[in-house]
Fold this protein.
Amino acid sequence: MKDATIQMPPQASTVAPHIDALYYFIFWGCTFFFLLIVGFSLYFVIRYRRTKEQRQEKGFHNTPLEITWTVIPTILVMIVFVWGFRGYMDLAVAPGNAIDYYVTGKKWLWQITDPNGAVSINEMTVPLNQPVKIILRSEDLIHSFYVPAFRVKQDAIPNRYNTLWFQATMPGDFDIFCTEYCGAGHSGMLGKVHVLTPEKWAEYLKSTGGRPSTMPLDQWGAKLYASKACITCHSLDGSVKTGPSFKGVFGHQVTLKDGSTVTADENYIRHSIEEPGAQVVQGFEPVMPVFKGTLSDDDIDALIAFIKKQQ
Ligand code: CUA
């Protein structure tokens, strides 16, 4: 466990110290040999400049010297290879007792399914000091799931699963980035891993069912509006972002891409959440992720109630 340095984010997982050690071995090794070779080259260029007569002589050969500068670098790259390969195997094979999370990348968010089946957007909550395995896929094109503080990175690819694992060693909040350019929203495809003590994590799992039975629908909808990242593209004040504003939309006519009009009622909103590409409002691109299967019926009711209130 080490804090951030000028080169590195904090070491917040079990693999991070090993990866950093190899990185620094390569970094300082390269620095040392760069200075050694350039230093000697400059010195020799000046000190042993050939005279006119020497230019006529035959070339110079020294077998022991050539063997030395072949054998030493070979040993060094073999050390880096073995060290790196062991690190790679360690990263590739998750411990048998790891807790499974399903993570899906889509334009432009991370959908995270907890072990209890609850779905979060861009927020992943994991226990401290326990191995966590991520089963990763994409719904559209290639994304890449990256948590710098854990030193783990893996591509999310359509139509196949990739996996990665980590064991967090530091409580706190750590950044998730997408590191594969995936279009206009790539730089905003951000998330957080929240590392909690096992007790707090167990409490968190209990709290993430659905809407508490005493909470009104529209209040739950307001929570979902933020937690499911609708807020990123849909304003409440009429301003136009990536998607249409929610202000004053309910019960009114909207014009669709093909020029037809439709009333924004309960059915239209439900359809637009589940299959956003089907009835796109004129002036907007069909870029919203599909939420079919992500939201429960009650969640959709709550969002409809919330949108109704934005008059
Ligand atoms: Cu997803 Cu870049």
Residues 127 and 201 are 6 Å apart (CA to CA).
